[in-house]
């Protein structure tokens, strides 16, 4: 900032000494001249301008902004759309009235006791996010704030965003004008996608300018089957116009923010009330997760599905640690948590296959029984026939025996007659 002011002063002096005039001259500051040529803001401006949309609280050694009137499952970077700018890459255009500040200066954090909060920063960026993707989904999350320095420095020290901060959108819908209509709200499915997606990177600094071109434009065009419009940026002095599209351009409000160590919010919210509200929100979310887990046939105490070993009373941070430990354990054992859904589907298929086999066996048994009945009837007929044949044989045998006896008697009579003849 000092270097730029010195440069401007020297240029102005040179023009005046040469008899030139700034009015109507061809002197151009830079193609990316900041809007703060006409607009000056400080950290205190955030306190005043954001007050109608939320509360300011002292938390973690900093003054943080907590938005009002958000859904229980609300996350940053969900109400708005992405535009690809020639100068900065992917820029987030928020539809929220405080979006000009909270998505371009500073970062979002999450506290288990107060929920989502925003820490002011002094450097403008098209978005402060980390990216992941797979073949079918794009996933992003707000980069956590640095708690040791409210001002975001050039040296981006980034912690891994917690899993509950990731927003997953089918790639075919990435260019939708309202991400809130298309992002995946089912928490089980969102986590499954996040776990499978590969890390792509974070925003980065090039020539002291924050750029956000991690997600490849060609990939988006292939998956959406739409051409990505590359738009130019135009500076605006009205923060309310930030993000407004005008033909092939988009307006941005990006003045430098001056440090103001003595600035404080006019009103600070009661942190205990914020914690009570967050506790109720967590209870509603846990009940919702329970219903989702029951629907998916999962055990609520399985850390992978959003609850913990303590009956679902863990904070999102604690649950996140449990899930990471579970993933590491499965990796060591040769298991892959990313196949959880496939394993569940396979189990359902096996169960269905078993039922089908049982039904098939029952049908086969019925056919066998039906076949056995004619066989049994035929067997009974054969048995009766054999019995009749046996009776006939017995009768024949009796006749034969009778005939034999008659023949034997007749032979005796003949022998006696012969003996009588011999005596005479």
Explain what the structure shows:
The protein has about 425 residues and is α+β, with helices and mostly antiparallel strands. It has helices at about 1-15, 45-50, 100, 185-195, 215-225, 270-295, 315-330, 340-424, and strands at about 40, 55-60, 60-65, 80-85, 90-95, 105-110, 115-125, 130-135, 135-140, 165-170, 200, 205, 210, 230-235, 245, 250, 255-260. Strand 15 (about 245) and strand 16 form a beta hairpin. The model is unreliable at about 1-35, about 150-155, about 305-315 and about 335-350 (pLDDT under 50).
Stretches with pLDDT under 50, minimum 5 residues? 1-37, 148-157, 305-315, 334-350
Helicity, as a percent range: 40-55%
Number of strands: 17
Shape: rod-shaped
Distance between the termini: 172 Å
What proportion of the residues form beta strands (DSSP E)?
15-25%
Structural class: alpha+beta
Give me the Rg, rounded.
44 Å
Q: Overall mean pLDDT score?
A: 75
Order of helices and strands: HEHEEEEHEEEEEHEEEHEEEEHHH
| Sheet of most strands | 5 strands, mixed
Report the total helices.
Answer: 8
> Which strand order spans the largest sheet, edge to edge or round the barrel?
5-4-14-16-15
């Amino acid at each position: 900032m000092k270097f730029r002011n010195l440069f401007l002063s020297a240029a102005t002096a040179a023009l005046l000494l040469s008899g030139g005039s700034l009015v109507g001259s061809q002197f151009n500051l830079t193609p990316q001249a900041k809007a703060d040529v006409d607009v000056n803001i400080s950290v205190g401006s955030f306190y005043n301008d954001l007050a109608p949309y939320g509360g300011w609280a002292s938390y973690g050694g900093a003054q943080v902004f907590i938005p009002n009137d958000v859904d229980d499952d609300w996350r940053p970077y969900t109400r708005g759309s992405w535009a690809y700018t020639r100068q900065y890459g992917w820029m987030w255009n928020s539809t929220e009235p405080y979006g000009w500040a909270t998505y371009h200066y500073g970062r979002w954090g999450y506290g288990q006791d107060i929920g989502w909060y925003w820490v002011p920063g002094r450097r403008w960026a098209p978005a402060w996010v980390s990216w992941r993707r797979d073949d079918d989904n794009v996933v992003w999350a707000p980069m956590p704030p640095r708690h040791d320095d409210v001002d975001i420095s050039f040296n981006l020290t980034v912690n891994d965003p917690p899993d509950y901060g990731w927003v997953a959108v089918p790639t075919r819908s990435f260019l939708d004008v309202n991400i809130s209509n298309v992002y995946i709200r089912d928490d089980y499915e969102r986590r499954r996608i996040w776990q499978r997606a590969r890390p792509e990177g974070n925003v980065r600094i090039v020539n002291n300018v924050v750029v956000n071109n991690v997600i490849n434009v060609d990939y988006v065009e292939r998956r959406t089957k739409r051409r990505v419009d590359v738009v130019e940026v135009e500076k605006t002095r009205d923060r309310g116009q930030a993000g407004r599209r005008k033909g092939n351009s988009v307006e941005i409000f990006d003045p430098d923010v001056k440090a103001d160590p003595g600035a404080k919010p006019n009103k600070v919210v009661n942190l205990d009330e914020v914690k009570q509200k967050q506790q109720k929100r967590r209870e509603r979310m846990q009940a919702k997760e329970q219903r989702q887990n029951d629907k998916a046939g999962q055990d609520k105490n399985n850390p992978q599905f959003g609850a913990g070993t303590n009956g679902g009373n863990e904070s999102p941070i604690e649950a996140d640690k449990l899930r990471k430990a579970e993933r590491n354990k499965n990796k060591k054992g040769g298991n892959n948590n990313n196949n959880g859904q496939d394993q569940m589907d396979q189990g359902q298929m096996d169960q269905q296959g078993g039922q089908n086999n049982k039904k098939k066996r029952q049908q086969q048994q019925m056919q066998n029984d039906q076949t056995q009945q004619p066989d049994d009837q035929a067997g009974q007929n054969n048995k009766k026939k054999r019995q009749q044949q046996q009776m006939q044989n017995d009768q024949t045998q009796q006749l034969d025996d009778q005939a034999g006896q008659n023949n034997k008697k007749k032979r005796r009579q003949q022998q006696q007659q012969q003996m009588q003849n011999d005596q005479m």
